[in-house]
Write a structure and sequence with these properties.
Blueprint lengths: L4 E5 L16 E2 L2 E2 H9 L6 E4 L14 E2 L9 H14 L4 E6 L9 H7 L6 E5 L2 E10 L3 H9 L5 H7 L3 E4 L12 H10 L1
Parallel strand pairs: 1-4, 1-6, 4-5, 7-9
Antiparallel strand pairs: 2-3, 6-8, 7-8
Helix pairs in contact: 2-4
């Protein structure tokens, strides 16, 4: 298997944070997205950002910005599909996804996903359960995912289970801590 490309999922509406781009909030001296990039970029062949709206707001990141192809904020699977379509244009066989609001993602995320894949699919898990926005996804299943989304499917685990996805177990919930509220941002600052 070729080294996968990375897709950072930032296509949500951030309603619990009051709207806007959570990933652009400052965590210490860098944005949350800068923290995510610092951990994901060394593990993948290339990185793109899945985000909706005006891509110019991310110009400083120097990343390809890929919007959802399914209208109406259809959830993380829509971002995965956008990433798979982009990866197909790059001649990649797989993508690895990570949430834009999770600055402490594991530095061994990609090797562990590859080690535990089944049918080219794998989701990360921690003691609190599966982490469905952190996964390995095969480009070969993008048309199946598109059909499932068009049929109304929105649950990541429902789709990955149908395809026999593997699970990569990580020992620490903190690696998947995500920043959804102002209190979460304060907690993340204390975790640095």
């Amino acid at each position: 298997m070729k080294q996968p490309v990375g897709v950072i999922l930032a296509g949500g509406q951030a309603t619990r944070m009051g709207g806007g781009d959570k990933g652009m909030l400052q965590l210490d001296d860098r944005s949350i997205l800068d923290h995510v990039l610092a951990r994901l970029e060394p593990q993948v062949a290339a990185v793109a950002l899945n985000a909706n709206g005006d891509p110019a707001r991310f110009a400083d990141l120097n990343l390809p910005i890929i919007p959802d192809s399914i209208a109406g904020f259809a959830g993380p699977l829509s971002g995965v599909l956008a990433g798979l379509d982009w990866a197909a244009e790059q001649d990649a066989t797989h993508i690895v996804t990570a949430a834009a609001d999770s600055p402490f993602l594991p530095c061994d995320l990609v090797p562990q996903l590859l080690l535990n894949e089944s049918n080219g699919l794998c989701l990360a898990a921690s003691p609190s359960g599966r982490q469905p926005t952190f996964g390995l996804w095969p480009v070969a299943l993008r048309n199946d995912l598109r059909a499932s989304l068009n049929d109304g499917l929105r649950k990541v685990v429902q789709w990955t289970s149908k395809h026999g996805a593997g699970t990569a177990e990580f020992p620490d919930d903190a690696a998947f801590f995500n920043i959804n509220t102002p209190d979460d941002l304060a907690t993340a600052k204390a975790m640095l």
